[in-house]
Design goal:
The complex is a heterodimer of chains A (about 230) and B (about 280).
Chain A: H1 2-10, H2 26-35, H3 39-52, H4 60-82, H5 97-107, H6 109-114, H7 120-127, H8 137-158, H9 164-186, H10 194-216
Chain B: H1 3-6, H2 20-55, H3 57-63, H4 69-94, H5 98-129, E1 147-149, E2 167-169, H6 186-196, H7 211-244, H8 254-278
Antiparallel strand pairs in B: 1-2
Classes of the chains: A mainly alpha (about 230), B mainly alpha (about 280).
């Protein structure tokens, strides 16, 4: 929670005091950001699209601007929360575009006046929840879609002859992209404490050491491997 | 930092924690440490795979044809979908959407059963045709369906595969519509010649030496993964019962979050197993 806030605070936007628990509203408020007519927010929104697509794992800048986008969204939903309904209710509470555009406009001046970055922690205490980041519907569905596309891609790539080592390389790259998507978005590492990523990467590092040391001398024992019979005639 | 308001009326915080945030963060770090251990746990089998494939690429090029990519791909899709529903269960709990939470947990459990069901079909077929681990390996057919006859194993001993004693049984040739052709007829001879065209000798169709190792690795890796799926089912059923009792809310969803993390690691390992075992070119 606090980690995510820190990230938000790094953006010099007035709206950055995010209630993380309500960042979830980001998907439906993507339209709000457009409605509020800021060039910036549209850019950020489109880069959020990028973040949920296949390239996401590699695009760091798209990732950081997503933070900005979601914090803006949070500003909207925070306003909605104060009107009792929308935060606890289903996302579809504000049903029409016009309504939501109005709400978005109404919310715009509020964050700058009522909140600032330094008041972030107090603000969270007021609400008392938001133990961790909530993945938006857009991110979840985008990750799922990308994983399915990559699965089809890797199955298709196998039928194309690129030479056996090249085929293996392509399969492993695609698998690693998929694993990255799962880690970053399904497992929340993108929004989570850095410590969890460190723990995860440490395990991978030691697995890599394990493999490397095992491969060092593995061909040295080949003559000792005895099969029940010599190779077939 | 948020415990000032919650701690007073949250029964879920254990006494040794400062508050819900402390409890949640500790649980999550603990879960990640466990997942790190899981990666190292599986890495032993990945090392076995890598070392063996590095030394015997021909075994993998041959043996993977026994596996059906269709089943593997369906299972990949099933697991990815179950990961989505697990991630959504976390979201539903965080947003206090009780019915959606129950639906997501149920979907994850059903997907896990579907995965194991498909795995059962695959395992059953492998035991049926004899492509199993260790010295029980004695396939009754080649990957392209030609029957193989192996000599009887001496009683009480491992069956020794002597390629020179193996008989390849060519099925009676059939016409395109499936009706058997008259043995010795020109059509039948032509069909046999067509079937033999791709092989230089009849032994080239037999498994290369040490092929049983592929299946030892296959059963060890998919078996250990399957045990993890079983454990996941147990955990998610426990969560489902608690969710039905209304234990989870935006103030307390740690168990859902941690179980989902575990489930994603199970998915992640399958993401590597699928291309390594099924998609060998």
């Amino acid at each position: 929670m606090s980690d995510h806030n820190d990230k938000d605070e790094k953006h010099d936007e007035p709206e950055t005091d995010a209630i993380e628990q309500e960042e979830t509203e980001s998907e439906e408020s993507s339209e709000e950001s457009e409605a509020s007519d800021t060039e910036e927010s549209e850019d950020e929104q489109s880069s959020e699209d990028a973040a949920s697509s296949e390239d996401a794992a590699s695009s760091e800048d798209a990732a950081s601007s997503e933070d900005a986008a979601s914090s803006e969204d949070a500003a909207y939903s925070e306003d909605a929360a104060s009107s009792e309904d929308a935060a606890s209710d289903e996302e579809l509470a504000a049903s029409t575009k016009e309504e939501r555009a109005k709400e978005a406009k109404a919310s715009e001046p509020e964050p700058t006046s009522a909140h600032n970055n330094s008041g972030d922690d107090d603000h969270h205490d007021d609400h008392g929840h938001g133990l961790s980041h909530i993945a938006s519907r857009k991110v979840l569905l985008g990750t799922f879609g990308a994983l399915m596309v990559l699965t089809v891609l890797t199955v298709t790539a196998t039928s194309v002859d690129l030479g056996s080592s090249m085929n293996l390389l392509v399969a492993m790259i695609v698998a690693t992209l998929k694993a990255g998507l799962v880690c970053l978005f399904f497992m929340h590492l993108r929004y989570d404490k850095v410590m969890h990523t460190v723990v995860f990467l440490t395990a991978l590092l030691f697995a890599l050491l394990f493999v490397s040391f095992s491969l060092m001398d593995s061909s040295g024992y080949q003559q000792d491997i005895v099969w029940v019979e010599e190779a077939a005639p | 930092m948020s415990h000032h308001t919650i701690n007073g009326h949250d029964a879920h915080v254990a006494h040794h924690f400062d508050g819900p945030q402390h409890q949640f963060d500790s649980g999550k770090l603990g879960m990640w440490t466990f997942l790190a251990q899981e990666i190292l746990f599986f890495s032993a089998l990945f090392v076995a795979y890598i070392v063996f494939r590095y030394n015997h690429p021909e075994v993998f090029a041959y043996a993977h044809k026994y596996l059906d990519v269709k089943y593997g791909a369906i299972n990949t899709a099933v697991l990815i979908f179950s990961s989505l529903s697990a991630a959504w269960a976390v979201r539903a709990a965080q947003k206090n959407q009780q019915k959606l939470l129950i639906a997501c947990l149920l979907t994850t459990i059903l997907c896990a059963f579907a995965f194991l069901g498909i795995k059962y079909v695959e395992y059953k077929h492998k035991f049926h045709i004899g492509t199993v681990y260790g010295c029980n390996f004695a396939p009754s057919e080649t990957p392209n369906g030609t029957k193989i006859d192996w000599p009887e194993a001496p009683k009480g001993q491992c069956r020794a595969l002597k390629a020179s004693e193996a008989k390849i049984v060519v099925e009676p040739p059939k016409a395109a519509d499936g009706t058997p052709l008259e043995p010795g007829s020109p059509e039948a001879l032509k069909a046999i010649a067509e079937a033999d065209k791709n092989s230089t000798s009849r032994y080239s169709q037999l498994p290369p030496p040490n092929t049983s190792m592929f299946f030892s690795i296959y059963f060890a890796m998919t078996g250990l993964h399957g045990i993890h799926v079983l454990a996941g089912i147990a955990v998610f059923i426990w969560l489902l019962v608690r969710a039905i009792k209304g234990h989870f809310s935006e103030a307390y969803f740690g168990p859902i979050d941690f179980a989902a993390l575990y489930w994603h690691i199970v998915d992640l390992i399958w993401i590597y197993l699928f291309p390594l075992l099924y998609l060998i070119h």
